[in-house]
Amino acid sequence: MVETIYALSSGALPAAIAVVRISGPRSGDALQALLGSLPEPRSPSLRTLRDADGEALDQALVLWFPGPATATGEDLAELHCHGGRAVVAAVLAALGSMEGLREAEAGEFTRRAFANGRIDLAQAEGLGDLLSAETELQRRGAMRSVGGQVSGHIEGWRERVLGFAALIEAVIDFADEDDVAALPAGFQPDLSALCAEIRAVIERPATDRLRDGVRVVLAGPPNAGKSSLFNALLADDAAIVTAEAGTTRDVLERPVSVGGVPLVLVDTAGMRESGAGAIEAIGIERARREVEEGQIVLWLGAEEEAPAGSVQIHAKADVAEVQGSGLKVSSVTGEGVDALLDLLSERGRAALPPADRMAFNRRQKALALEAVENLEAVDTDGDLLVAAERLRAARVALDRLVGRDSTEEMLDALFGRFCIGK
To answer: Most-buried pick from 134, 259, 355, 397 (CB within 10 A)?
Structure first.
């Protein structure tokens, strides 16, 4: 039997209002026990909550939503209580004492919504991103998934694949009939157009970068001013700065928003070929990996040693005459810092998926690629049974995009990102 779950679904206490959510087949029984009677469905009602001994716990605004047309697809209740810690603790204790009720696990309400068909996997992933959004770009990107725009596109692609499959099956099954002896002339152009649409979305930057932030790696030799610049960009003393070479021996990361663009600044160990101890050598190797994987690399060393595609930074413009090209910056005087922040905002925005277009996360990209590769392999001049199997495989990949075939391990990882009350 499906268990009935409950949890505090609003923010940290104390607060003006605390929302306690109950979902499952015994939600109505729980309300009866707390209120003495059920309120009118979907109509807010101010009621007194009482425990099993009849003692008043709080006056709360109560809402009762009989399933299945609810957020979770089950009977659902919400208690909008006063947000004091003692009040909420007493209400949760009263619910916990009821038979058949237990406290929800992280993401369990949303997982039930997915299991009951109220949302699909793409919407659930978008909701997870929305909960963690800290910038306007992150919020807008997440809302495209939560609002069903991503799912709608995928469903449209799936319907077109089913249409292609039906045409091929008709030719296979009724090839001896004159009116279905061959595929229509538009079959291949339409299939190619679908492949192009899916490829266009795959080639856009992944939404994971929008969620996690664009990695900006500060790299160069020891004592080049990386940690000082790192601190200046953060307006914080996050990194230890000394004149001693090799002070930074590991990777130091800090998230920051620049011009509304989510970035992760990465300070790395100074890279040198000799003179490093065992611990520093490990830090140097990690620095090299960060340079390879970073979306933006700020190079504070000699221009001839700069990694391909990096931004040349002269970080000690206040103490040395700068020769050559690159951006002149001083962490001491602030010279060039604003210009560097503008550059990071511009490049960071270019490294993110466009705010007005659909984009995939890494999981979705892999499945979309599987789908399009099968579609591109459809050969209508060869064995049509093989072509039909390619279309079936493409449809299965699109199904997995929206969670029609999802493993428990993947779902555990996704919903584990959510808070207890969500």
So the answer is: 397
The proportion of the chain whose per-residue pLDDT surpasses 70, expressed as a percent, equals: 90
Find, among 142, 107, 128, the residue nearest to 21 by Cα: 107
> Per-residue b/e over 292-328, b at no fewer than 16 CB within 10 Å?
eebbbbbbbbeeeebeeebbebbbbbeeeeeeeebbe
- The two three-digit tokens of residue 111, written as one number: 């997982």
Is the predicted pLDDT of residue 173 greater than 80, yes or no? no
Domains plus CATH for the chain? 4-115 (3.30.1360.120), 126-205+358-403 (1.20.120.430), 222-346 (3.40.50.300)
Report if pTM > 0.85: no
Residue 264: the pLDDT is 92
Sign of CA dihedral 192, 193, 197, 198: negative
Give 19-52 pLDDT, tens digit per residue. Answer: 999 999 999 999 999 999 999 999 999 999 999 9
Q: What is the mean pLDDT of residues 52-76?
A: 96
Secondary structure class of 18 (helix, strand, coil)? strand
Residue 23's DSSP bridge partners are 5, 76
Is 256 buried (19+), middle (13-18) or exposed (0-12) by CB count in 10 A? middle
DSSP string, 144-195: HHHTTHHHHHHHHHHHHHHHHHHHHHHHHHSTTSGGGSS--TTHHHHHHHHH
Tell me the mean pLDDT in the region 120-124: 88
